[in-house]
């Protein structure tokens, strides 16, 4: 079983990347290792030019293909997920996310961008074949702070992220997707409370 974390932020110290690392640590505490890949791991020219036939894109597709589950994080800019993440997703095969469990994680400046998970990221994930999308986790900039390497996560966000990661771990640990899942866990629900 392989779990891939995919960071869509250009900054290693971003809030969305911090939430992704926290999720990976929680998986590790449950005995589930994850492999990390980020926007910075792919050549910028390949991303800008959409170099699908390049070696970096080929390696990306192999890692995604080998994964049973993906945690995908992104900052939200102008009411949509990051363009860098879109550039990564554009290098994947048409049905790259079929039969994979996907947990979307996003951060944004305010609650006004809460539905970016539902209305901008989810359709792209679905176009890539994802049918098993867990409830997304969204946090505002005030709920996640990163200063000098120290990360502070609001209790509400931590609780929602813990729940989402635990659900992912349960599904990854129990059975292949072909055996079915409790659809109550798999509905994308961009719940947010202040």
TrEMBL record:
A single BP term in Gene Ontology: alkanesulfonate catabolic process
Domain NADPH-dependent FMN reductase-like stretches: 1-142
Family annotation (Pfam families): FMN_red
Keywords: Flavoprotein, FMN, Oxidoreductase
Record bears the keyword Cell division: no
Coiled-coil zones: none
SUPFAM superfamilies cross-referenced by the UniProt entry: Flavoproteins (SSF52218)
GO MF annotation: an example: FMN reductase [NAD(P)H] activity
Keyword Cell cycle attributed: no
InterPro entries membership: Flavoprotein-like_sf, FMN_Rdtase-like_dom, NAD(P)H-dep_FMN_reductase, NADPH-dep_FMN_reduc_SsuE
PANTHER family membership: FMN REDUCTASE (NADPH)
Protein family membership: Belongs to the SsuE family.
Listed name of the protein: FMN reductase (NADPH)
Organism of provenance: Bordetella genomosp. 4
């Amino acid at each position: 079983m392989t779990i891939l974390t995919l960071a869509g932020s250009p900054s290693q110290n971003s809030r969305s990347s911090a939430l992704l690392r926290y999720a990976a640590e929680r998986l590790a505490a449950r005995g589930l290792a994850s492999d990390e890949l980020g926007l910075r791991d792919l050549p910028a020219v390949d991303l800008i030019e959409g170099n699908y036939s390049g070696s970096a894109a080929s390696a990306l597709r192999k890692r995604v293909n080998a994964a049973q589950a993906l945690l995908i994080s992104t900052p939200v800019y102008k009411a949509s997920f990051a363009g860098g993440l879109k550039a990564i997703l554009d290098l994947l095969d048409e049905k790259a996310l079929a039969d994979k469990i996907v947990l979307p994680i996003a951060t944004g400046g305010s609650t006004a961008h809460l539905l970016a998970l539902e209305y901008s990221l989810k359709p792209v994930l679905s176009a890539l074949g994802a049918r098993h999308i867990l409830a997304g986790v969204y946090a505002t900039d005030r709920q996640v702070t990163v200063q000098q390497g120290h990360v502070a996560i609001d209790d509400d966000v931590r609780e929602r992220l813990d729940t989402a990661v635990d659900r992912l771990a349960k599904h990854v640990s129990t059975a292949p997707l072909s055996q079915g899942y409790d659809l109550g866990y798999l509905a994308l629900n961009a719940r947010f409370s202040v």
